[in-house]
Amino acid sequence: MVLFFVVAVLFGAILALIGHYFRRKKYSQHLNGFQPGFFKYLGDFIKLLMHAASNDGHSICYHFTQHLKELNEQHQQRQMYYIWGFLNPYIVFVKAEAVKQLLSKRKGTNEKSWLYDFLKPLMGTGLLTSSVDKWKPRRKQLTPCFHADILRGFLTVFNEHSQKLVENLRQETKKEFTYIGTPVTLSALDIIC
């Protein structure tokens, strides 16, 4: 009985991988970028890991930005390309025209990506994480508040409180551990109030 269960689970997993491979192949035919093979489930991240394995003292973030820089140089003549991250394609826009074209078509852009679901417990459904139907009317109300002429009048306030934040962070770096949320939150409150 246990053997049957194990075989059934393995068979199901293999079928799921094959199905996902054909879905990836179907999507990748319509996009410019790295065409992943059947067993290359790390996609473009394998190249990133190879960069990071060079042990040159740089962080993984540095290697990630270098990898994206190389890809942007390769695809600079195109409007966009995509990279595969594990099981998902991520579209990278190179030209502003591609972003404009995407944003002008409202169909299919009403919901945020599943990546935003990680932010919802932290941020709720505000301007960043809510759907277009919810944030568009609110954005129209907020846009005049962030006009350059209005913000220019608050530059001295921003500057004064950012200097205080720098001093607070300088004091915090002397400690072994710092929760950065507290000084940043206090600085934001000082600027707002």
Automatic annotation (TrEMBL):
Belongs to the cytochrome P450 family. PANTHER family: CYTOCHROME P450 4C3-RELATED (PTHR24291:SF189), CYTOCHROME P450 FAMILY 4 (PTHR24291). Gene3D superfamilies: Cytochrome P450 (1.10.630.10). Its main location: endoplasmic reticulum. InterPro entries: Cyt_P450, Cyt_P450_sf, Cytochrome_P450_Monoox. Its cofactor is heme. The gene is Cyp4v2. Keywords: Endoplasmic reticulum, Heme, Iron, Membrane, Metal-binding, Monooxygenase, Oxidoreductase. One of its GO terms (cellular component) is endoplasmic reticulum membrane. SUPFAM superfamilies: Cytochrome P450. Pfam families: p450 (PF00067). It is found in: Endoplasmic reticulum membrane. GO terms for molecular function: heme binding; iron ion binding; monooxygenase activity; oxidoreductase activity, acting on paired donors, with incorporation or reduction of molecular oxygen. This is Cytochrome P450 4V2. It comes from Nephila pilipes.
